[in-house]
Design goal:
three-stranded mixed beta sheet; 15 strands; globular; 441 residues; binds N~2~-(3-carboxypropanoyl)-L-arginine; L-arginine/glycine Amidinotransferase, Chain A; alpha/beta
């Protein structure tokens, strides 16, 4: 039996804007205040989901988290009517209004850390919802994320976020990699953390080792198959605020930049050896040198943030790699992908335009949570949120009708805009949970 990787994406919300809130995230900081296009952002996300679903992978869709979060603003002392709360937040602390309206939950790679049941010695898939304590706008996501993931399946166990505040800050799957065979057999779990020595100079490391140690314990992973690996401080300082900006993995493939990790060769030797013992196969380990692609260009193109997808009905075929359009227009990054396809690591490459997400520092892999599942769990999942051509068409129509194509921070302070955003959210959520769709009958 094989493990099938379900992909969970969230629709970008109607309040998508560039708040410059991403800690250590150069794209986010650089584009702060720029006019955003929520309609294009949501349609671009849907287009990527279509690409993935067309490969035969189960593609699940979550609704946007309701924003602006007025409860959050009220808790911070902005009182009065809804109109007052929005106006006061905008006048007194616009960055808090921006945080309350952020659609950052669209980057579902940060929703949770996931391990398949087989790694814990049983068949129970485990998820720990990320606390996202490194950033104000992201720390408000976890409650809704817990509810959303809980609703998707009854056959997995979802743990609450790791407690303990900033010392236990956790960014979910963006810093976690699992290597294993395509079969439902134990694999290796690699947890990449940024705190401790050697420290970055400019940016604050978002992921703590202690949080991942707690997750490995909670998920009952066997210690000999768990690796804790340190992010290179130079990578964090160059803008790799998450490991998935400089490293990617899928089954027997591990590809990363030479400055992704602060580890010596022996760690990777142990990793390769253990992988071979566990799976009987050789780990394909590709290290991209600074000469072939500088750290700065890795961050600019998000090459290592490509989404790798196996076709469930052709599991022995090499997977497909989905890259941001920025990879296609960078000759160095493009030739690397082409060389990997020629070497048979990937079957083919698809380029997708995710410009609105990229301006906030999120590429293809940031926009999905991958969940390796045995087939019967895939079949147990909430079918009403599974991608289908008719759901896709319905969502596109709603987005075209209810989302604006130009948004400025001051718009978020208007009560009319707030009401429209609530309506847009309700339409999308209702559409996702509709039992039967005209065209599916
Ligand atoms: O947490 N950007 C997100 C991007 C997350 C990318 N995810 C992965 N690498 N897996 C972040 O920094 C920008 C928000 C703003 O600028 O308004 C933001 O939150």
């Amino acid at each position: 039996m094989n493990l099938i990787e379900a992909q969970v994406d969230r629709i970008v919300g109607p309040t998508h804007h560039f708040g410059g809130l991403g800690v250590g995230n150069l794209a986010s900081m650089e584009h702060a205040g720029q006019i955003s296009n929520p309609q294009a952002a949501a349609l671009q996300g849907l287009e990527k989901m279509r690409t993935v679903a067309t490969l035969g992978a189960p593609q699940l869709i979550l609704p946007p988290q309701p924003r602006p979060d007025l409860e959050f603003l009220r808790a911070l002392g902005f009182g009065g009517t809804d109109t007052d709360v929005l106006r006061r937040a905008y006048n007194e602390a616009p960055q808090l209004l921006s945080a309350a309206a952020s659609c950052s939950a669209m980057w579902t790679a940060n929703a949770a850390t996931v391990t398949p049941g087989v790694d814990s010695g049983d068949q129970v898939t485990r998820l720990t919802v990320a606390n996202l304590h490194a950033s104000i706008h992201r720390a408000i996501e976890s409650e809704q994320t817990w509810n959303d993931l809980q609703a998707l399946s009854k056959l997995w166990r979802i743990h609450r976020p790791v407690p303990g505040g900033a010392a236990m800050r956790d960014e979910g799957a963006a810093n976690h990699m699992r290597l294993g065979s395509p079969r439902n057999e134990p694999g290796l779990n690699i947890f990449v953390f940024g705190d401790g020595d050697p420290r970055p100079i400019t940016h604050w490391p978002r992921q703590s080792r202690s949080a991942y140690e707690a997750i490995a314990r909670r998920h009952e992973l066997s210690p000999e198959d768990v690796f804790f690996i340190k992010q290179h401080p130079a990578a964090i300082d160059a803008g790799a605020f998450h490991n998935d900006v400089v490293a990617m993995s899928h089954q027997h493939v591990l590809i990363h930049h030479e400055f992704a990790f602060s580890e010596n060769e022996s760690t990777f030797q142990r990793l390769g050896l253990r992988f071979q013992q566990l799976t009987g196969a050789k780990l394909v380990h590709v290290v991209v040198s600074e000469k072939d692609l500088s750290l700065a260009d890795a961050v600019r193109t998000y090459l290592f943030n490509s989404q790798i997808v196996s076709r469930p009905n052709a599991p022995e075929q090499p997977p497909v790699i989905i890259c941001a359009a920025q990879v296609e227009s960078h000759s160095g990054a493009r030739s690397l992908v082409q060389s990997w396809c020629e070497a048979g690591i990937f079957d083919e490459v698809h380029f997708v335009n995710l410009d609105q997400s990229m301006l906030g520092g999120g590429g293809p892999a940031c926009l999905r949570l991958r969940v390796p599942l045995p087939e019967e769990v895939v079949n147990s999942m909430d079918a009403t949120v599974m991608w289908s051509p008719s759901l896709d068409a319905e969502l596109r129509e709603l987005i075209r009708k209810h989302y604006v194509s130009e948004l400025r921070l001051e718009d978020l302070a208007r009560i009319e805009f707030y009401r429209d955003a609530c309506r847009a959210h309700d339409h999308i959520a209702a559409s996702l949970h509709k039992k039967t769709r005209e065209s599916d009958r």
